[in-house]
Structures are given as structure tokens and as C-alpha cells.
Amino acid sequence: MKPTIVLVGRPNVGKSTLFNRLTRSKDALVADLPGLTRDRHYGHGRVGEKPYLVVDTGGFEPVVDSGILFEMAKQTLQAVDEADAVIFLVDSRAGVTPQDKLIAQKLRMSGRPVYLAVNKAEGANRAVVSAEFYELGLNLEPFVISSAHGDGVWDLIDSVLSDF
Ligand code: GDP
Ligand code: MG
After folding, report:
1. 15 among the known binding-site residues?
2. Smallest Cα–Cα separation from 70: which of 31, 98, 95, 35?
3. Does position 145 have pLDDT exceeding 50, yes or no?
4. 13 Cβ below 6 A of ligand 1
5. What pTM did the predictor assign?
């Protein structure tokens, strides 16, 4: 079975950077402007013998970030519904935000298998970083990663794929 792995998180946490790494492409547009990725949402990847499909939900987000009123776009929720696994990205430097909490709540309700990835954590203290995100109430051991540098990314994907 080829699992569909859906990347979810508020704008600017690094979804497209992770997408690029997991698909080894530069096709997703990565930028400092939140919500800029619009052009490509699906990509194929493979680890060893195991293929997977990755979905970058960034392009489904509204371009204007409405702050505390943010809700996950319908299309993102639809992608989550169709996911075999969800990677929920948060930003280690920003800490837990209200948007993260809303997303966590939606993901809990979705009943899909969720993997929490604390991104932008190059050089960070893993224990300190993971402790902070327990607040999201997902009851998960976070994967502390750097999508930009690659740290922890293959541990994460191996763990996701081990269930398929
Ligand atoms: P998206 O909006 O969630 O798709 O986020 P992007 O992938 O477009 O990344 C947003 C910004 O964060 C860009 O400037 C990326 O270069 C940067 N970024 C992504 N991953 C990392 C990381 O692991 N470490 C650092 N320091 N920056 C990152
Ligand atoms: Mg993006």
C-alpha cells in the first residue's frame, strides 16, 4: 500500500521545505511570505522500497492570515480526511500559538494518525523543545526536526512508513 502523508500546519512553519525534502524537488515554492505556496500540492517520494505520496496543504490556506480567527481551510480538512498519516508541523522558535492549538484540536477530532514535527530546531535542545509542545495535548512524542537542514527528517518518515 502506498500511503498518503499530509503535511499540516499554520503558514510559515516549513511545510513546503519539508515537502521538497520528502519529494526531493524544488517545485514547491518556499518563501518568507506566509501562504505563498500555491503551485504544487502533491509529490511522490520513496524510502528504500517504500513509496509514499506527500500532500503539501499550504496552497489550500487563505493567503491572508486572519490570526486568532484562523480556521483550517475546507480543502485542508478534506486532505486530512483522506490521509493515511498526518504530519503536523509546528515552529520550535515560535512556541505553541493559538493557531497551533486550533489545528491540534481539529486533528484530534479527525481520528487520523498524527505525527507531531517540531521544525526549525537545528541546534536546539531537543528535550526543552519537545517539552513545550506537550501543551498541544496530542499525547505524542514530538519529532524534533530541521526541514531546512534535514536533521530528524528521515527518523520521522521512517516512523510514519513503519506503520504501512
Ligand atoms: P510553509 O508556509 O509552511 O510552507 O513554510 P515554508 O516551507 O515556505 O518555510 C517558511 C520559512 O521558514 C522559509 O523562510 C524557510 O526557509 C524557513 N524554514 C523552513 N524550514 C526551516 C528549518 O528547518 N529551519 C529554519 N531555520 N528555517 C526553516
Ligand atoms: Mg508552503
Report:
1. yes
2. 98
3. yes
4. yes
5. 0.89
CB 76 within 8 A of CB 9: no
DSSP SS3 for 88: strand
- Domain of 29 in residue numbering reads as 4-161
**pLDDT tens for each residue of 97-129:** 988 998 999 999 999 999 999 999 999 999 999
Protein residues placing their CB within 5 Å of the ion ligand 2? 15-16, 37, 58
Let me know if 19 is exposed, middle or buried by CB neighbors in 10 A (0-12, 13-18, 19+): buried
Question: Which of these, 118, 68, 56, lies nearest to 93 by C-alpha position?
Answer: 118
Specify the pairing of strand 42-47 against strand 114-119: unpaired
Binding site annotation covers 101? no
Between the CA of 133 and the centroid of ligand 2 the distance, in Å, is 22
Q: Is the distance from CB of 89 to CB of 115 less than 8 angstroms?
A: no
Domain count of the fold of the chain: 1
CATH classification at residue 142: 3.40.50.300
Give the pLDDT band (50/70/90) at residue 63.
Answer: very low
Q: Is the CB of 45 under 6 A from ligand 1?
A: no
Question: Cell 475546507 maps to which residue?
Answer: 74
Q: What residue type is 85 in one-letter code? A: A
